[in-house]
UniProtKB/TrEMBL annotation:
It comes from Thlaspi arvense (Field penny-cress). Gene3D superfamilies: 3.60.21.10. The chain crosses the membrane at residues 20-40. This is Calcineurin-like phosphoesterase domain-containing protein. It holds the Pfam family Metallophos. GO terms for cellular component: cytoplasm; extracellular region. The lineage of its organism: Eukaryota, Viridiplantae, Streptophyta, Embryophyta, Tracheophyta. Keywords: Glycoprotein, Iron, Membrane, Metal-binding, Secreted, Signal, Transmembrane, Transmembrane helix, Zinc. Belongs to the metallophosphoesterase superfamily. Purple acid phosphatase family.
Amino acid sequence: QFTVFLGSITMVGDRRRSSLFDFFLFSASLLCLCLAPITASAHRRKLRFGVDGEFKILQVADMHFANGATTRCLNVLPSQEAHCSDVNTTVFMSRVIAAEKPDLIVFTGDNIMGAGVKDAVKSLNAAFAPAIASKIPWVAILGNHDQESTLTRQELMNHIVKLPNTLSQVNPPEAAHYIDGFGNYNLQIHGAADSSLQNKSVLNLYLLDSGDYSSVPDMGLYDWVKTSQQFWFDRTSKRLQREYNAKPNPQQGMAPGLAYFHIPLPEFWSFDSKNATKGVRQEGTSSASTNSGFFTTMVARGDVKSVFVGHDHVNDFCGKLKGLNLCYGGGFGYHAYGKVGWERRARVVVADLNKERSGKWGDVKSIRTWKRLDDQHLSVVDAQLLWSNSANVSVVF
């Protein structure tokens, strides 16, 4: 598998050859550990804000990884067609990780294109290789195509949670007996070290399995976030609020949250390129035909400030509805369908902390986002403020 990658590095240009060769060698050596069980200490690893008062998340949506160098690209320029493959997806990821240096990488489903995959384990290992090589914590959820190869959704998550440096979970232990899907979990981002909030979660991430295809007759094509998952979300959100408000250092209100899943909510239909806050709509929203009410559930709780999805590759907008941002990641992978001349892209989200009078970092001040394009300069586009806890906040991009 990796000898194929190494032999195809020449396809992406002489000027990157040496660094990419080193990168793939490093990736290959790390992936020999892929089948070893993840240690308990890895799951207990605390995520926290840095000394600069920031926490940065890189969203990778829809890699559609298949079989490496033998997998051809879709919807690229004629000049790219002869030499474009899954390797281009891997190179893009290594470039954007190096440029952004995120604190967490979130893969939001369709990580592999199951229908074209010969061996799901090999494809998963290759798809996540740049994240593993970076040693940056990463997590993954599933889309609607991941399970179309040799592994079920449960088997896919069982494999993912064993990979190096991942904080992914199959399901939360307290809800494993009732929750639908595989890959529902919460990540807590603690305050900066040596601050009064270093032992409190000041930013909460909710990752959910939005399923694949509807199993209910006459209920459309795509699946949705089920009642059991919403129940778990509601209970988890309330528990996190109690902990946030509890001694020591009790805080007021709720810590802000972000939600990540694959299939967009029907409410994404509320926006087009004209009324979205940033970004474009270039295709319809392939949501479930039924509305499970998850948007209403999140609005009612009030802690989630932004939702991030994939699935519709050539939509990359954010729109705001009832105080909740609904954002597409934009298509990342070259084996995924795209639009000729429209660069593959990744979404970056940064949360910033308030500075207290003592000079130490406090709670979350703001959440902002932008996208990185896979062009020569890794261009940054559509920088915007998603949320702030003050009307007078000044945010610098």
